[in-house]
Amino acid sequence: MSLFLRRTPAALRRESPLVPLVCPRSVANLPEPRPRPPASSHLPTASSSLVPISQFSTTAPTSESKKRRKSRLTLKNHLLKKSSALQAFVAATPDPVLGYGKGKEELWEKSLLKSVLLRREDVWGETVERVEEADELSVSAANKLRKKRAAEGLDEPEHYNFGLTEEEVKLLTKDLPEVNATRIFSEGPADSVYTSLAEEKYESAIEQEQAKMERLRRIVDLKNADSKGIEAENRRRIFKAFGRKEGDTGSPEVQAALMTAQIRSLHSHLLSQPRDIQNQRPLRVLAHKRATVLKYLRGLDVQRYEVCLANIGVEARAVEGEVNVTKAGMRGLIRPE
């Protein structure tokens, strides 16, 4: 039995208002407390006797209805399809530098720009073989071989330097030497036309013109040009193929084709020289500039934009939206596994 003794006001201010006093006799008559069940037991306690016990489980409850189960499985299938579609979309993201994704190299192989550009390996390939063949012979034998090939027409240049056409080269190397030889022959006195001296003079004039023709053929041959000469020839070809009119060098199509050619050239250089860190930033800058030009073209005319993308071998996703060229992406592009 609990007894409460009333305190004085001063004591109440110092202590709690009610101080229970327990009688020793009442304490002795109290029943012993009931032992608590262990923590691992699942028996309900006094505080949780009215709360149902629920354990975590990944399986569906047995009391789930058919309609709810069907909706749950449908939602699960939709989430799986969405996740797989997102993964496929991310995997098919085109490279912002090359302009196409993995497995879509045919987009570049079938493009107009690929057929227009000249590669250094294609231009210089035969020259390397000819030098190796000439090294085995003496200098005089090599010169005789070169003249023989020129006489048979086997040493004719396949590509011409300085923007010259085939008709212009023919005029310089065939028609003009004959005219000069005739002019030199006719400069002599009239009475010596049918003499042996005139014949020797004509033959020497022909030999001089043939030597000039051989030197001129070497100059106009693109095989003897350096990499800058090949790049200049590629620019002339791009102006002719992508220009909207004669002399067009500033239209968006021409600018996009020029930047794509520079990107391909830098990419091939970095593949052979992966430690060239200084040229990695210009490659990223060119990719962003090309995207800017193509976005401007899309604002002008969508049809021209789509045709230009097909001609330069670039996907629309590579230039639309944010163009992000990360260091990891650049490293994987330069050093493919």
Descriptive tags:
59% helix, 337 residues, mainly alpha
Describe this structure in words.
The chain is elongated. The protein has a two-stranded antiparallel ribbon. The chain starts with a strand and ends with a helix. The protein contains 14 helices and 2 strands, in the order E-H-E-H-H-H-H-H-H-H-H-H-H-H-H-H. Mean pLDDT is 76; it is low at 126-137. With 337 residues, the protein is an all-alpha fold.
Report the major sheet.
2 strands, antiparallel
- How many separate helices? 14
Look at the helices and sheets and give the structural class. Answer: mainly alpha
Overall form: elongated
Q: How large is the share of residues in beta strands?
A: under 5%
